[in-house]
Amino acid sequence: MAENCFHCGQEIDKDRIFFDEKAFCCNGCKSVYEILNANNLGNFYELNKNSGIRPDENLSQFDYLDTPEIFEKVVDFSEGNTSVVTFKIPVIHCSSCIWLLESLQDLNNNIRYSQVNFTKKTLQVSFNQNELPLSELAKFLTNLGYKPVISLETADKKEAAVDRSLTIKVAVAGFAFGNAMMFAFPEYLNTGSSVDFWLEEFAPFFRFLTFLLSIPVVVYSASDYYKSAWFGLKNKIVNIDVPIVLGILVLFFRSVYEIATNYGPGYFDTLCGLLFFMLLGKIFQKRTYSALSYDRDYKSFYPIAVTKVDFGGRQQNILLSDIKIGDRILVRNQEIIPVDAVLINGEGNIDNSFITGESATITKNPGDKIFAGGKQIGSILELEVIKTVNQSYLTQLWNKEAFRKEELGLDTLVNQISKYFTFIILGITLLAGIYWYQIDFEKMFQVVSAILIVACPCALALSTPFTMGHIMRILGRNKMYVKDAHTIEKMAKIDTLVFDKTGTITYNKKANISFEGQEIAEFDLKNIKSLLKNSNHPLSKSLYEFLEVQDEYLPIENFKETAGKGYEATVRGKVYKIGSAKFTNQEAKSLETAVYIERDGEFLGKYIFKNEYRDGLAEMATELKDYKIHVLSGDNSSEEQTLKNLIPNITEMRFSQSPEDKLEYIKHLQDQGKKVAMLGDGLNDAGALKQSNIGIAIADDTNSFTPSSDVIMNGGVLTKLHDYFALTKDAMIIVKLTFGISFLYNVVGLTAAVLGEMSPLFAAILMPLSSISVVAFTSLSTWLRSRKYFKF
What we know:
This protein is an alpha+beta fold. The chain is built from 27 helices and 28 strands. The strands form 6 sheets. It has a 7-stranded mixed beta sheet with strand order 16-28-27-26-17-24-25. Strands 8-7-9-15-10-13 form a 6-stranded antiparallel beta sheet, with no helix packed on it. The relative contact order is 0.08. Mean pLDDT is 78; it is low at 49-53, 152-162, 292-303 and 401-408. It comes from Cloacibacterium normanense.
């Protein structure tokens, strides 16, 4: 009697290996079983008893991956002892695969994290390359039953080629449908009182031809439906493909019965047409989702600018999309490095936790390569670009699980509806089948098939992502860049707005500045200006523009910044401290915003700022009358009265707030049940941005990309904030209306099918039409609503 391997489920055709009273086909499967049990992951077998594929015994095929040239081409990132690689794993097919592959760090201590992209069938792994070579990682995955596919295409990091199998399946179904209709045509003519002898004589032959044509359609064209239904049932999930498969099989076997007994022509032409139109609908849906995915990958980061510098030292802010290989760029303290580059000047102290998940920093010297996604901790760096920006990669970093917040509402609603939808359809089918069995046995097959085919939650599932995708695209065109669709939903529920003052409701560079103190020599002014450009703080930027001495690239040593207070460093042998009064051991003057300068322990003076608030701030506050408005500032209360005059409906203001104070303030509001949106510069406000329900990083002309934010918004459109929030509320109304359209479609379609007024072929045509109607409605309605707020 044949015996199956306990791990991979395949029949054992060689010597059995017994362990723990279980049979295994090879040492690989036995080893995986031991690893799972040693790490308390034995419930993997409860999730899926047929995991992956049988381990490949020829594991030496991966040794080439350790060749330095190949290794560099395959990995996404490699620094110190940490590397990140993305493998194509075609056999990922269900929830248990995802569960196991995202638990690799529990199976091997040299793996730091692993993340599955189910749609693309890829696995990203961060691992210790010194202890676990890349070839060993590939062998480890293969032993688990998930052999990575590594080819020139995957190594070049190109997008996977378009899957042509669906197109071929549609072509097969279309060919069979057209010819089956032709062969069935005599059947439709040969009815009534006049029966043609020759048509009647050759009817069995034509019926047999339609049967032959239907076989590749049922076996090949419909294969994806069988796979989906089978994988769902294996994991105890009755998905929407289950009733579709039942409808296909009912039509096919009823038709086989009819021609075998010469009872009638069957429904082969209808069956071929049904699958042809259903597959056309699937192509439409795939193209729709691909379009949305493309927009997310390549438009999310357009607001971020980077400072380009020429060989004369002149600086220019340009968009990421304009960066070219060979350009020189500047990266300041706490900024994300947007491209792979070589360090030219400066002391690199790179935090790669954004990529690897580790908080350790790596020291870099001139000539070293620095990977995109790292964050500079310390003085300014001058880099030479060696790769153009890959915005898809940056988007992936922005969306890392570590920076995700709670997911809400609409997805939960759709999941709940979809969960019971199939059972409801199967129940209606059973009752209708019983009824028509008693009334008209022949018509029962048509009714049952029509019900199983016409009922589809596809339009329901498509309504949310397509509507949100349109809204994200509209917001992006108007300089608000949203992380994901969940953010749109959360924005619509916001009732409280918390604004940072400096750099958010004030201009970054516009300020009236005066100096008070001893005269500062040009030598010191050049040192100070060179130090100022290391900081992203709005006051530092304003002061940098204000100083009228020539900017020179001067080496900065021992740079250290204290968030919300100031920074210090050594420039040409002099130690400077720039920041608040407390940071430089001075006494602050009340009602004054100032930057204090100290050199070698000697106080040189202070630059006094009178901030200029953004134009239209008062009008913005009036439009936001339905929201509670709070203002937090790290400065003193010198401009409290000015703010009250500008924002008369302000709820509360707090000054001299540290980054920790801002975070606690957000927590306090949330404890009161408030849905809070925090608007800040993304630097000192990072903690508060992450804590808030929606974190909006305000960017004027700087690389303010931060994983803590859900939205990056151009500062120039801040005063139109009400319009952006209003559009998200409209989006929720549109989604609910599309839910209504989908529900109405299913009610009307099911009613007609149950009453016997709909053929299976017409049901198959209606199925993709429902998705098309949703797409058309959302496209038109979002366009019309957006015209109310924005000009195109």
